């Protein structure tokens, strides 16, 4: 995994920082997510009914399942900040579910650093424009702006920021 310093982060704004490995979203994953979220809508968990009654030709992943995979996609893709002591999800702006992820499809994330700003003595707020590509499809499964907070020891704050 690549490592960078806090001082390097501002210079990366506007750059794609990485593309994740492919993740297969199979029916088992979809069913487990349905169980965890209590969302058992037939388009997710009933392949026969979804094939017969939906426009998708079979089951599809929950949009929130695809969104939740961003954490796994991010890990090992976006460079690790050496001084980071903890990372926190702050939220999302402009989440859009653009196209379905069919059961068995492979997805991967694209991460572009869109903004960063130092806050307080030991925090860096970062925003990433993210998209989740579906293998073989033209439209992404989702697009969003993901906001995170990098915490670090204040003694490690770069000078002049």
UniProtKB/TrEMBL annotation:
InterPro entries found in the cross-reference section: HotDog_dom_sf (IPR029069), MaoC-like_dom (IPR002539), NodN-like (IPR039375)
Pfam families, sorted: MaoC_dehydratas
Domain MaoC-like intervals: 13-120
Protein name per its UniProtKB record: MaoC family dehydratase
Organism: Aliirhizobium smilacinae
């Amino acid at each position: 995994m690549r490592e960078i310093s806090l001082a390097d982060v501002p210079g990366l704004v506007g750059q794609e920082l990485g593309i994740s490995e492919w993740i297969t979203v199979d029916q088992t994953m979809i069913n487990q997510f349905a169980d965890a979220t209590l969302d058992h809508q037939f388009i997710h968990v009933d392949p026969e009914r979804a094939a017969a009654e939906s426009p998708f030709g079979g089951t599809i992943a929950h949009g929130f399942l695809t969104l939740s995979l961003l954490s796994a996609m991010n890990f090992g893709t976006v460079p690790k900040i050496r001084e980071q002591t903890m990372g926190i999800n702050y939220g999302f702006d402009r989440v859009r579910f653009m196209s379905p992820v069919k059961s068995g499809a492979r997805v991967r994330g694209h991460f572009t650093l869109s903004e960063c700003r130092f806050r307080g003595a030991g925090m860096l707020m970062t925003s990433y424009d993210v998209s989740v590509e579906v293998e073989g499809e033209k439209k992404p499964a989702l697009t969003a702006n993901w906001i995170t907070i990098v915490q670090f020891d204040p003694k490690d704050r770069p000078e002049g920021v």
